[in-house]
Design goal:
InterPro entries: Glyco_trans_1, Glyco_trans_28_C. This is Glycosyltransferase involved in cell wall biosynthesis. By secondary structure, the chain is an alpha/beta fold. It is built from 25 helices and 25 strands. Helix content is about 35%, strand content about 15%. The chain has a seven-stranded parallel sheet with strand order 15-14-13-16-17-18-19, sandwiched between helices.
Length: about 725
Amino acid sequence: MTATVHDVAILSDFRYPGGNSAAIAAEVRAQAEAGLRTILVHVPSPHNRDGLPFSPRIAELLRDGLAELATPDAAVNARLLVIRQPRIFTADLAVVPRVHAEHTVMVLNQAPGDSADPTRYYDFAQVRDRVELYFGPSVEWTPISPQIRGMLPGLSAEDWHEIIDVADWPSRAPKNGDLPVIGRHGRADAVKWPRAADELLQAYPDKPDLRVRILGGGEIATRLLGRRPANWEIIPFGGEQPADFLRTIDFFVYFHDPDLVEAFGRTILEAMAAGVPVIIGEHFRPIFGDAALYTTPAGVEPLVRALWADQERYRAVAAQAREFVETRYGVASHLARLAARGAGARPAAHRAPALVRRDPAPRPRPVLMLSDNGAGLGHLSRLMAIGRRLPESCPAVIATQSYGASVAHREGFLTEYLPSRAVLGLPKQRWAGFLQSRLEHLVDLHRPAVVAVDSVPHDGIVAAAAARPDVTWVWVRRPMWRRETGAEWIAKRGAFDGVLEPGEFAAPADEGPTVADRAGVHPVDPIMLLDRSDLVGPDEARAVLGIEEGRPAALLQLGAGNINDIASPVGRIARHLREAGFQVLLAESMIATDPMPTVPGARVVKVYPISRYLRGVDLVVAASGYNSFHELLAFQVPTVFVPNRATSLDDQVARARFAASTGAALCVEDPESDELDRVLAEAVRPEVRAQLARRCAEVGFGNGAEAAARWLAGLAAENGRSGA
């Protein structure tokens, strides 16, 4: 079979939230319109922290079929390879992507440093050495702007400048109100703001007859000022789409730290395309010519007032800017440079219709699955358990407030990240509005037939469900809540069209409020990510976990450490097990906010899902959270449960007690007491572990994930037949 040759391969880290992803998205869309096949090659940058999901702009490209994502270690063939973001190459790559291209361009879209430190971000010589080692000596090195050209030697004579499709940025209507509105948008970075408080207030005045709107990074400015001016409105990054935001402002004003070398200025380009007059510093003139207005922070207010009073000139400035970006930075300029490098547009007869942006062909309507933040991965794992069993006719889209968004992405799900209230630091009411807005946007974007919510019904979720009644909303509600908790959440279940309830082995001991709330509840067996058939054999499991032959092994799985302090009992448990001859492994959650404590003689393992390797261990000491509890019993693993008492809803104590009362597990309710030593002394005995495994087999239960997926798929089909 002949390998697919793509027209353009783009290699970058697709998790960058700002201009890098916006620029890639613009180029991919232009390529798709020209009938060009694009493949994206993801290479993590050492400067991006683990756990970040793909930028929503990139996720949207993949969802719409405008580009393909190269699978890890796959060979990629392309007419042209475009590499963006030099910081990826500030360290040796763990895995070098296998890309063969007829021509390779390295786009230097960031300055190597600033005036204070010329190599703050990367050493150009080191980056060049690595790129040419990986991709050959014939790489074409192109700057994104004259600013970068002036800082580095030996670059191409042509800039690989940003592009924009003006048609995607409808021109705003003249005047948003009686008062002029000054605005800016961008990611949160201190260097993107003036360093001095007086210059900040000159650029964004605190005046009652002016309004200021800031999308992203406003918290940096208010920290510098020590207050938020009364005329300022601050929207979190991602709280509004840039095109929508730009329609609400009259002037785009952008000034930054004097040491920063701004490589291009994507947000400036977007404002011009939207017909918003731009006020910026003189150093941007080589990029934006006479289409922008240049001044200092002190000159902003007089310029705004003069232009506001002369609407004819205002309209002329806006029109000139829009015409300028279309002529110099429009789609045609990008297609021309592709053609010059052997990747020209294909004739219409050979275009791939699946890659055309406005393809009217219907797509399967997915199930949008929303998970709460959570201390661990329980909410998210339950949804992934269902999602991986949904039919192709209604694929899963994961939306999560959890740091585990990257886990879902690695598991192959199209994943959207919604920052939690704690991450954004918002008061309850503002976060409710943010959550509602983001959910409504995701519903409009993905057009799901069903939204499945594994979360308590926060106000923002309830409001979004009311605002999008044509979608079937389902609450995936785990039982076993603590007594006298959660009544306020039960009262809001009317916001949902149905309740899907994962089963609970300890249901006879359940005294929580869900027990009495049964109307409209669809029960299934306990939901688990894996089936028994998914577990690897003992030898493979021990090899993956690094377990030595000849000695028993114990796994400590006490949670993410994000609710309670798991460090205090770990040392005692590990010491007892080591003295009994066990190898000790400490399971570290993929989203733990603090590293596991250092325990002599114990080794940390960080694997997801660790349940796949449970046949390699002889004993587990675990918290009794819903997911791990049911996995350990279903997979017949001898277990000592140490319930977490610090949970807000989950009754881990009652769950662990019930398992112990049935003889399926042991339980330590107070790990600070002598009970811990007594129970562990029993657990290390081979005959006790064998009896626990036999009892688990006797009381065994099935996996309800398949039944849950069938039920949701049925609801999706009913929604489709109703014409929603």
